[in-house]
UniProtKB/TrEMBL annotation:
Name of this chain's protein: Urease accessory protein UreH-like transmembrane domain-containing protein
Organism field: Thiohalospira halophila DSM 15071
Residues passing through the membrane, by range: 6-36, 56-81, 87-108, 141-167, 173-197, 209-228
Highest taxon of source: Bacteria
Chain ranges of the Urease accessory protein UreH-like transmembrane domain: 9-220
């Protein structure tokens, strides 16, 4: 039951983090949309398969990254006392959630350092995406989404830290997939209603609300780990 709650929470973090997605990924979605033939671009029904394929690729990459991080966490936990290691990882994940909330609210930009560090990998794989432009088929959109999933992003990196504490590769993949599904409404909306949506979610009210809720969730996550009974009790 606790694991299912984590997936729901990851979905909600993705949903609330949509205000950040507009800034980070809005330009990419716009480039994809504007690069489509006019006969497709002017019809939502014709454009939707491309946007869905693009986002399926992105979420698949998130799930792969989550599986890798979940595996790392499982190895670390097995190398130490399992329960104690999981609680430590949960505290770290909660602190990253607090940092993420501050980042989303625009109150602290420390996670931008993580994005710059991730740029090292991105510079190596980004040229692959250029070869798929302009997008002419949903399959190309899927391939571009698979690459886009590795775009340096403090929001994604924070949830990846959470995936380390998920308990294993499958759990890490499901956690990141849940998060990716949470970002889906905003990014699909960006593809269809880019200008209107971007204007609304960039308002300070939405950023502050999303950031504050994620901070509270991070504090709750740390509190659950700190208040957990010691191993062998209860």
């Amino acid at each position: 039951m606790a694991q299912e709650a984590s997936y729901l929470a990851a979905f909600l973090v993705g949903l609330m983090g949509g205000v950040h997605c507009v800034g980070m990924c809005g330009g990419i979605v716009g480039a994809l949309t504007l690069g489509l033939p006019e006969s497709i671009r002017n019809r939502v029904g014709a454009m939707m398969p491309y946007l869905i394929a693009y986002n399926v690729g992105r979420i698949t990459s998130y799930a792969v990254a989550g599986a890798l991080m979940g595996g790392v966490g499982l190895i670390a936990a097995n190398a130490a006392a399992l329960r104690e290691a999981q609680l430590v990882l949960q505290v770290v994940a909660g602190l990253f959630m607090v940092a993420l909330g501050l980042y989303l609210g625009g109150w602290w930009q420390g996670l931008a350092q993580l994005e710059r560090a991730g740029g090292v990998l991105w510079r190596r794989i980004e040229p692959l995406g250029r070869r798929l432009m302009p997008v002419k088929t949903p399959w190309q959109a899927l391939g571009l989404g698979l690459i886009w999933g590795w775009l340096p992003c403090g929001l994604v990196y924070s949830v990846l830290v959470w995936a380390i504490a998920a308990g294993g590769m499958v759990e890490g993949a499901l956690l990141m997939a849940s998060f990716g599904l949470g970002t889906l409404p905003m990014l699909l909306g960006m593809g269809v209603f880019a200008a209107t949506l971007a204007t609304q979610v960039r308002r300070p009210l939405w950023r502050n609300l999303a950031g504050g809720l994620v901070v509270l969730f991070g504090i709750w996550t740390v509190g659950v780990a700190v208040m957990a009974p010691p191993a062998g009790t209860g």
